[in-house]
TrEMBL record:
Keywords: Membrane, Signal. Residues 1-22 form the signal peptide. The keyword Signal applies. InterPro entries: Bact_OM_lipoprot/Surf_antigen, Gly_zipper_2TM_dom. Residues 61-98 form the Glycine zipper 2TM domain. It comes from the Bacteria. It is found in: Membrane. PANTHER family: OUTER MEMBRANE LIPOPROTEIN (PTHR35603:SF2), PTHR35603. It comes from Colwellia echini. Coiled coil: none annotated. Its main location: membrane. This is Glycine zipper 2TM domain-containing protein.
Amino acid sequence: MKSLLLTSITLITFLFSFAATAGYERNKAVPVEQVLFGTVVSARNISQEELIEDKNSGWKTFGGALIGGVIGNQFGGGSGRTIATVLGTLIGGRIANNNSQAQIIVINLVELMIQLDCNEQQCQQYMVIQDYDPQMVFHKQDAVRMVYLTDGSVRIDKQF
């Protein structure tokens, strides 16, 4: 029993030791593949709701079952103790599973229609959706640059 508990604690510690990194960091230099210049034709603030499931619900259910089994094992004797342990495991797992909840997260985005500066070819328009940045609000007729990063992502910034 102690080895199972020790193994579980070690595994949980290992899983939570990894830190999540952001996909876009403002204070980091990244290689740029291409930069195009243009004008904002339209800008629209939109939002997207995401349902985030509890990633730890399996571990919570396991922990609830483990605690319920330990508590159930304290009662009865012989086959009664076995039944109490099994019932405690089932009830503890069920209670822990019912308590795990999903969250709704609202993500603010901005949808931009960009008219590229015309060259010898025809003028092209691109629609880009990116994270809303309250310190960089876009308006119609704003001069912008479309930055293509080497990882395939695109970022729109104002020309200053």
